[in-house]
Amino acid sequence: MKETDREAVATAVQRVAGMLQRPDQLDKVEQYRRREARKKASVEARLKAAIQSQLDGVRTGLSQLHNALNDVKDIQQSLADVSKDWRQSINTIESLKDVKDAVVRHSQLAAAVENLKNIFSVPEIVRETQDLIEHGELLQAHRKLMDLECSRDGLMYEQYRMDSGNTRDMALIHSYFGSTQGLSDELAKQLWMVLQRSLVTVRRDPTLLVSVVRIIEREEKIDRRTLDRKRQTGFVPPGRPKNWKEKMFTILDRTVTTRIEGTQADTRESDRMWLVRHLEIIRKYVLDDLTVAKNLLAQCFPPHYEIFRSLLRTYHQALSARMQDLAAEDLEANEIVSLLTWVLNTYTSAEMMGNAELAPEVDVALLEPLLSADVVSALLDTYMSTLTSNIIAWLRKALETDRKDWMKETEPEADQDGYYQTTLPAIVFQMFEQNLQVAAQISEDLKTKVLVLCLQQMNSFLSRYKEEAQLYRDEHLRDRQHPHCYVQYMVAIVNNCQTFKESIVSLKRKYLKHEAEEGVSLSQPSMDGVLDAIAKEGCSSLLEEVFLDLEQHLNELMTKKWLLGSNAVDIICVTVEDYFNDFAKIKKPYRKRMIAEAHRRAVQEYLRAVMQKRISFRGAEERKDGAERMVREAEQLRFLFRKLASGFGEEMDSYCDTIVAVAEVIKLTDPSLLYLEVSTLVSKYPDIRDDHIGALLAMRGDASRDMKQTIIETLEQGPAQASPDYVPIFKDIVVPSLNVAKLLK
């Protein structure tokens, strides 16, 4: 208490200190005192009221406890009186045993009298029930069956109550009503038959189906009552519970499974399209069945059966099991595609589960996959493996067929622009297109994988194509009379390279969403390089053919016959132009490069003739005639190649300037300026070597040995540097094995 008093005083001091912080507040002391007095009086009144309330409660509780104690004493006295009366009446109860037995017998006799009519009419009811079942009047048959079972179960229950251990009487009753179980089984068979054909019955005779459902509902109610009585008495009639509702769903499940499995009418041996037909029949049947179940069947069953949801689940499980079985078979590539397309796309599409007729009860987003991810992955791996083998075989066969076409006596076909081509690119990319279209039906991921596979195999195929083109050229060089249309088919091979490039780009643009997808873009440069190499070799082979025919006329250049008036260059120009009329069937990107290469090669062969030391001019007049002839022939070649390149909008005549530059060296009349002229020539063409200069000076025929030596040694001291875009022309020209020392003599 002292501690409490001290805390109260401390609190009061704190409050007073808070009130009297300013001098002007001293005037209000009396006001503060009256306010605190009012608060104290209010608190004391509340405390008194609370204490009074508590005292009233205690008083009431004590009164109730006193009353309860009196009641307990009264009950105790009453129980003692009852116990005394019970002990005194034991003898009286034992004397009433005979009365008890009489009551039991009376109860049994009453039950027998009550069922007497039914007992005597059992055989007749059995016959009537059998007739009703045979005539399909199932509802009436079930009513009579219920009467029979009720009579049997009532008698057996009374016998069970009287003497549950008397099995002889129980067996006698069961035997007398023995036909009842047979009728129940026969009726059940009829019910199951109707349920097996429920989707047909609901269209033709829905009343029959409703009767079946009503019978099952009755039996369910009887089963429930039986189980309740079992919990109370322990008695269970024979054949109970029947569980017909559970059996009904089992029958429906089995019917659905049988219907799904029974749709396979063909095998691979009898029909290559067996799986497609099988899956299409399944699709049609399932869609029709579920539509009927939603619109008609659901109306024949109680709502709590949720018959449509149950059938939907059953069909899904049956389809999943069937797809698992099909996936486990040894399927071919096209069959795997058909199965996966159906499972991954068709099943959830508007053609089946996504059909508007099934909405909104069927939500495809909630359907479980028909095949697990592992099974789908295994099927895709098998498909890719098989497809790889097939593509390799198809490409090999296509190349073999194309190789045979190269040997034909007739020219290859031309496209709409007149360019020669073979059927190889069309066959290859038609095959790729078909496989990509099929893969796209399954998934975007598979489509990309198939595209990668096609491009990878294309890479390998182009290597074989290149080898075959080389073999084709080598065989022709061994006997230039065969094949008859070598040039035309080599042109077609070159054109095929451009077609392949365009087709690859088109294929990727069509089937790739992103260029960087799966690293596919990386395959393009390598294939372009191989195709350009094949085309370059093809063009080189064609030019080789040209220059083999020109060899005789090229050998006439820079000879006495040429100096006296040979028409070798005229023939060369006519021959080249004639060949390029055939080469007009080459597509522009390659024809342009081919014209440039032919131009370079023609000039190079001309310069090679200069370096062969076939002629040595004997005087200034002869050098002048030879140089002027070289300039005229350079202009002839320039005109020819300008004409050939006219469709490309570019000038390609710089090579002929080399002939003119060499002619200037030969034409020079003042030997003292020879060093300057040769220096100019070397600065223009940095790849010219000292043996080329020696051969050129030897051809002039007027340069002294010392002059030759000085010119060559001086030029060797400061070789010219080639510009980055310079195309070498002297580099491949070989001077005959005559050393420089001999040339200088």
Automatic annotation (TrEMBL):
Localization (cell): Cell projection, Growth cone; Cytoplasm, Perinuclear region; Golgi apparatus; Midbody
Species per Swiss-Prot/TrEMBL record: Ovis ammon polii
Role according to the record: Component of the exocyst complex involved in the docking of exocytic vesicles with fusion sites on the plasma membrane.
Record-given protein name: Exocyst complex component 3
Self-association state and partner proteins as the record states: The exocyst complex is composed of EXOC1, EXOC2, EXOC3, EXOC4, EXOC5, EXOC6, EXOC7 and EXOC8. Interacts with EXOC3L1. Interacts with BIRC6/bruce. Interacts with MYRIP. Interacts with SLC6A9.
Cellular compartments per GO CC: exocyst; Golgi apparatus; growth cone; membrane; midbody; perinuclear region of cytoplasm
Keywords of this entry: Acetylation, Cell projection, Cytoplasm, Exocytosis, Golgi apparatus, Protein transport, Transport
Molecular function, one GO term: SNARE binding
Family: Belongs to the SEC6 family.
Chief localisation class: other
